[in-house]
Amino acid sequence: MAISSGGDSDEVLSEINITPMVDVMLVLLVVFIITAPLMTNAINVNLPDTETTVQIEEHKKPLVLSIDAEGKIYLDKDEYALEILQQELEGRKLTDPELRLNLNADDAVNYGVVAKVMVLIEKAGIEKLSMVTERGS
């Protein structure tokens, strides 16, 4: 496609105006920068402080199980009742036999709820469980 300059000469202007394309790319960059932090785990829990330990390098992203201060249980960002948690974990274990699970329990949650959840995790056959805590000062 040729663009004429509108003058008397028969020259053809063959340059592409890239300014609109750059504008669109900058808008997309700003959108991605703003939305990227929102893609993380959105369940807000106050983790207990512990000593620093050796961290294991993980190749695949683990499933995150969170328990908030009210005792509500979340798998990633979806809320589940304690009664159906074992069935959900068993289903996910069937799809991924090497399933890793990170347990985030709020510091204020009743220990009984955490113990019940850990029993359900064991009954579901999940062997790779990590307890997530804050780094102590």
Question: What can you tell me about this protein's structure?
Answer:
Its main location: membrane. It is found in: Cell inner membrane; Cell membrane. Belongs to the ExbD/TolR family. The structure is a single chain. This protein folds into 2 domains: 37 residues, no CATH class; 87 residues, Nucleotidyltransferase, domain 5 (2-Layer Sandwich), CATH 3.30.420.270. It is elongated. Helix 2 packs parallel to helix 3. The N and C termini lie far apart (66 Å). Strand 5 and strand 6 form a beta hairpin. The mean pLDDT is 81. Helix content is 32%, strand content 21%. The chain is built from 3 helices and 9 strands, in the order ββαββββαβαββ. The strands form 3 sheets. The protein has a 5-stranded mixed beta sheet with strand order 6-5-4-7-8. A two-stranded antiparallel ribbon has the order 1-2. The protein is an alpha/beta fold and 137 residues long.
